[in-house]
């Protein structure tokens, strides 16, 4: 009975890390097939992908889309959260529901709807349109995270600031935003991670310039290759860095 | 005074609200209208036709996709909960508190892999030459490589891998916020470990489980990548069929009707578990 | 049901921190005991040792004569009433109270009857179908009590049971707890940091500090003749007058007193505020200036500077009818029988 939980824990970790482990291990494969036996370590596939202009361009596109859309989602989310938490508004429950609603809809459907509207309007597909789609899916998350952290403690500090003569914009910039910084950063990095990994909306809403997941997708058609392992490992690394940053920034302030 | 405050409030909410209306609600309405339009040749005819929905009911490859999607999603949801609950439990109550955060972080770290990359990684593991087949053959359990990739097993495995991590996180959060005194009180009153779980912990964590299950349902039934990469083209799910309509035939009306059906399934799932759902806690 | 408890030489460490040191205690069957002390004094740890949630590092716990040191909570004749009550929010009050009986295998009908009887005992007979969130704090506390008593424990352990209630309700619940304890006859061990609560309720108070027992005995004895300086201070307001040993007893700023000196070094003479008065007394304090005086209904509480020791501020509870004015000089005396002497801390 005592060892059973530990056996389960170990088995679960093996299952969870099996694909990631295989991905990273065979990115250092010497030969041309990412399957056992392992004949590395070799860095040739990393050198190969970093020399690939299309991939590097896609990577930069992804970073731009992720950073830009997250900044917009965070800003809009913060403003909405501030408005709803601090001002008396009729129908605020309905507004909250509407803002959260995209969370319950598949990315595919969000992308499909946007694609049809853009086509009706005759607007060209670009990284910008993919970014708009990413804001749609990340705004509810940013809003929810920031709204949840707007507690009574902040409200009292805001009242104190107002009492001491601060104007509304001064209250927001000098009191509310600094106090909410952990939540804002958490929302931003979560949003960056999701946007960075997102495929289907980017796939539907971009045309010539594509993001990294879309580029990887097109490479996938040629089957298993250590190149893909190397790209995948790098993508994973970037996500982990973003997650750790979020983790660090949030929990450093709460000892 | 109140009116001015309200006006200010709307000022803050307006950008987000307008964004959601313009890029989420409007597209949604367009999609609804599109599902009632028809294609004549290559030209789109707006109208109020249920032809797309009728086609969906008549053509086997369409309604079969709905069944396949439902089967896969339900299997994945149930399996993921069954596997994630013990994991969350062990991390919450068996792992010493100082290691808990680390254990949880490690348990959900691969969650952050891009889903294209994650599906590719499973393809790697499950291929005929892959790690699993090699391991089974080395152990002498099988003589010939078995076909795992491009089957429903692969799709379900890929999904379960992802959702076990998601559910472990939500269930853990639920377990850890319960006062430890609930467990103590139950044991103090004579309940054994199983009775404590059955009568106290499980009912108290049910809202969390249902919320996680609903999230799993929504994300799983709408995913295109995992079945496309891991399941191959032997059996298609609804998102795969939608993409086929878009790609090969540019049949937006039929794709929209399928998307509406997908939404309908999610709504049904929502109604099914609305009693326990705490969407505000996601 | 009821049983005596015997705690024999119990020590407990959390890592390198010693939470309990050499605890020795005998509790009679049917006695109402309170463990009194500041937070971190080890009283809750001791309660957990009794309840079986912590196995002590050293020592034995006997309940009803049987060694229970390593028996898990479920198998002990004890139940615990938790500080946060730990009522199961998804169950009705009837199911909450009947939970222990259900675990014990009692049938539905008998269980419900017993649960309703227990709810009746705590005055909530009409609320059996309600859920915990519909109740006030005081009502939850009653349900927790009913749930713990429903399994007829020999010993009931109460961890700061009134801590979450406001002062007025707390005083009312004290009487209620005492009444219920008398009615069921179970041994109660009640942890609190409120000395008034302890005095109001307990047959015997155990004062704890820094993991040790400082004093144990009936409330009146501990209040009037505490065994240690800590117990003296924790039981209520106290004047501490510096003193030292002399040939005939002790020497104070107010003269010699024929009291036994507990040591040769500096001493502290402890006098309760109500032991100081304007009447006659063998301990003559002499004239003192009133710094301030406040009316408290039952008495008048005054800060005084005695002329014999101007650096000292004495607190006295004078009769409410004769409240002195600020700046007035009055002559004070005290009864040395009401004083205690300890080595200075």
UniProtKB/TrEMBL annotation, chain A:
Q: What does the record say about its membrane topology? A: Multi-pass membrane protein
Give the record's GO biological process terms: transmembrane transport
> Known CDD domains for this protein?
TM_PBP2
Give the GO cellular component terms, alphabetically: plasma membrane
Record key words, sorted: Cell membrane, Membrane, Transmembrane, Transmembrane helix, Transport
Q: Where in the cell is it found?
A: Cell membrane
**Which parts of the sequence belong to the ABC transmembrane type-1 domain?**
59-246
Q: Which residues cross the membrane?
A: 7-28, 63-85, 97-118, 130-150, 171-196, 230-251
Q: Which residues form a coiled coil?
A: none
Protein family = Belongs to the binding-protein-dependent transport system permease family. CysTW subfamily.
This one is known as Spermidine/putrescine transport system permease protein
Q: Per the UniProt entry, what species is this protein from, by scientific name? A: Poseidonocella pacifica
UniProtKB/TrEMBL annotation, chain B:
Ranges of residues in domain ABC transmembrane type-1:
66-273
Coiled-coil-forming residues are: none
Gene Ontology cellular component list: plasma membrane
Record keywords, A-Z:
Cell membrane, Membrane, Transmembrane, Transmembrane helix, Transport
Which locations, inside or outside the cell, does it occupy?
Cell membrane
Report the principal subcellular site.
membrane
Q: Where do the TM regions start and end?
A: 12-37, 61-90, 102-123, 159-179, 200-225, 254-277
**Membrane protein topology class:** Multi-pass membrane protein
Q: Which SUPFAM superfamilies match?
A: MetI-like
Pfam families of this UniProt entry?
Answer: BPD_transp_1 (PF00528)
Q: Which domain of life is it from?
A: Bacteria
Give the record's GO biological process terms. Answer: transmembrane transport
Family recorded in the similarity comment: Belongs to the binding-protein-dependent transport system permease family. CysTW subfamily.
- The identity of this protein, by name, is Spermidine/putrescine transport system permease protein
Q: What is the lineage of its organism?
A: Bacteria, Pseudomonadati, Pseudomonadota, Alphaproteobacteria, Rhodobacterales
TrEMBL record, chain C:
Task: Could you list this entry's UniProt keywords, alphabetically sorted.
Answer: ATP-binding, Nucleotide-binding, Transport
* The keyword Transport is annotated on this UniProt entry: yes
One GO MF term, please?
transmembrane transporter activity
Provide the GO biological process annotations.
putrescine transport
The record's listing under SUPFAM superfamilies reads: MOP-like, P-loop containing nucleoside triphosphate hydrolases
User: Would I find Nucleotide-binding among this entry's keywords?
Assistant: yes
Any one Gene Ontology cellular component term annotated for this protein: ATP-binding cassette (ABC) transporter complex
Q: Where does the ABC transporter domain lie?
A: 5-235
UniProt-recorded name of the protein: Spermidine/putrescine transport system ATP-binding protein
């Amino acid at each position: 009975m005592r060892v059973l939980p530990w056996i389960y824990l170990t088995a679960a970790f093996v299952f969870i890390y099996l694909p990631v482990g295989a991905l990273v291990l065979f990115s250092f494969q010497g030969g041309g097939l990412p399957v056992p036996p392992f004949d590395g370590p070799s860095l040739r596939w990393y050198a190969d992908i970093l020399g690939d202009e299309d991939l590097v361009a896609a990577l930069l596109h992804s970073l731009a889309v992720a950073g830009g859309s997250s900044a917009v989602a965070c800003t809009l989310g913060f403003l909405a959260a501030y408005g709803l938490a601090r001002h008396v508004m009729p129908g605020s429950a309905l507004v909250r529901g509407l803002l959260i609603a995209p969370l319950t809809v598949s990315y595919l459907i969000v992308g499909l709807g946007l694609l049809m509207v853009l086509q009706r309007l005759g607007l060209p597909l670009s990284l910008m349109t993919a970014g708009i789609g990413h804001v749609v899916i990340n705004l509810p998350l940013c809003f929810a995270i920031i709204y949840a952290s707007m507690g009574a403690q902040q409200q009292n500090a805001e009242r104190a600031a107002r009492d001491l003569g601060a104007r509304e914009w001064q209250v927001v910039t000098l009191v509310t935003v600094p106090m909410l910084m952990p939540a804002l950063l958490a929302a931003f990095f979560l949003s960056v991670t999701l946007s960075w990994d997102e495929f289907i909306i980017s796939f539907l809403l971009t045309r010539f310039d594509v993001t990294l997941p879309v580029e990887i997708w097109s490479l996938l058609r040629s089957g298993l290759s250590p190149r893909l392992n190397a790209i995948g490992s790098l993508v994973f690394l970037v996500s982990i860095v973003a997650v750790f940053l979020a983790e660090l920034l949030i929990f450093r302030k709460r000892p | 005074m109140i009116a001015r405050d309200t006006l200010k409030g709307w000022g803050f909410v307006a950008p987000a609200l307008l964004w959601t209306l313009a890029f989420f609600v409007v597209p949604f309405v367009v999609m609804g209208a599109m599902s009632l339009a028809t294609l004549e040749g290559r030209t789109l005819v707006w109208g109020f036709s249920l032809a797309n929905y009728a086609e969906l009911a008549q053509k086997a490859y369409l309604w079969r996709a709905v069944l396949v999607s439902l089967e896969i999603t339900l299997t994945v949801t149930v399996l993921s909960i069954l596997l994630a609950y013990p994991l969350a439990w062990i991390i919450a109550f068996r792992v010493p508190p100082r290691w808990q955060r680390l254990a949880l972080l490690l348990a959900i770290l691969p969650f952050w892999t891009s889903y294209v990359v994650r599906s590719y990684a499973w393809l790697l593991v499950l291929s005929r030459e892959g790690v699993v087949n090699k391991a089974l053959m080395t152990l002498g359990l099988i003589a010939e490589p078995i076909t795992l990739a491009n089957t429903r097993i692969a799709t379900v495995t890929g999904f379960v891998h992802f959702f076990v991590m998601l559910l472990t996180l939500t269930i853990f959060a639920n377990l850890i916020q319960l006062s430890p005194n609930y467990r103590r009180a139950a044991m103090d009153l004579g309940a054994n470990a199983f009775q404590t779980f059955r009568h106290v912990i499980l009912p108290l964590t049910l809202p969390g489980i249902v919320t996680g299950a609903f999230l799993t349902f929504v994300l799983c039934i709408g995913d295109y990548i995992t079945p496309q990469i891991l399941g191959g083209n032997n059996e298609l799910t609804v998102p795969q069929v939608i993409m086929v309509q878009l790609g090969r035939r540019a049949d937006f009306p039929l794709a929209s009707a399928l998307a509406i059906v997908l939404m309908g399934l999610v709504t049904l799932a929502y109604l099914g578990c609305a009693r326990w759902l705490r969407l505000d806690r996601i | 049901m009821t049983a005596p408890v015997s705690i024999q030489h119990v020590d407990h460490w959390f890592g390198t921190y010693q939470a309990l040191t050499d605890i020795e205690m005998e509790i009679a069957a049917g006695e109402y005991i309170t463990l009194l002390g500041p937070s971190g004094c080890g009283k809750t740890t001791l309660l957990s040792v009794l309840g079986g949630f912590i196995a002590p590092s050293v020592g034995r716990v006997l309940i009803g004569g049987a060694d229970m040191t390593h028996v898990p909570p479920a198998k002990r004749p004890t139940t615990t009433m938790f500080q946060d009550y730990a009522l199961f929010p998804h169950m009705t009050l009837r199911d909450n109270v009947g939970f222990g009986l259900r675990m014990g295998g009692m049938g539905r009908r008998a269980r419900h009857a017993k649960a309703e009887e227990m709810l009746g005992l705590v005055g909530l007979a009409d609320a059996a179908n309600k859920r915990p969130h519909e109740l006030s704090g005081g009502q939850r506390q009653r349900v927790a009590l009913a749930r713990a008593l429903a399994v007829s424990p020999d010993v009931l352990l109460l961890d700061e049971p009134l801590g979450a209630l406001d002062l007025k309700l707390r005083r009312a619940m004290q009487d209620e707890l005492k009444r219920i304890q008398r009615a069921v006859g179970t041994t109660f061990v009640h942890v609190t940091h409120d000395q008034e609560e302890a005095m109001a309720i307990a047959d015997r108070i155990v004062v704890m500090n820094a993991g040790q027992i400082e004093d144990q005995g009936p409330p009146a004895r501990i209040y009037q003749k505490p065994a240690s300086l800590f117990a003296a201070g924790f039981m209520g307001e106290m004047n501490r007058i510096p003193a030292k040993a002399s040939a005939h007893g002790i020497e104070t700023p107010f003269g010699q007193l024929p009291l036994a000196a507990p040591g040769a070094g500096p001493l502290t003479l402890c006098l309760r505020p109500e032991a100081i008065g304007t009447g006659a007394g063998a301990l003559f304090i002499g004239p003192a200036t009133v710094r301030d005086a406040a009316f408290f209904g039952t008495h008048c509480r005054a800060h005084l500077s005695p002329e014999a020791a101007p650096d000292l501020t004495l607190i006295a509870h004078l009769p409410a009818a004769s409240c002195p004015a600020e700046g007035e000089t009055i002559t004070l005396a005290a009864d040395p029988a009401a004083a205690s002497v300890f080595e200075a801390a």
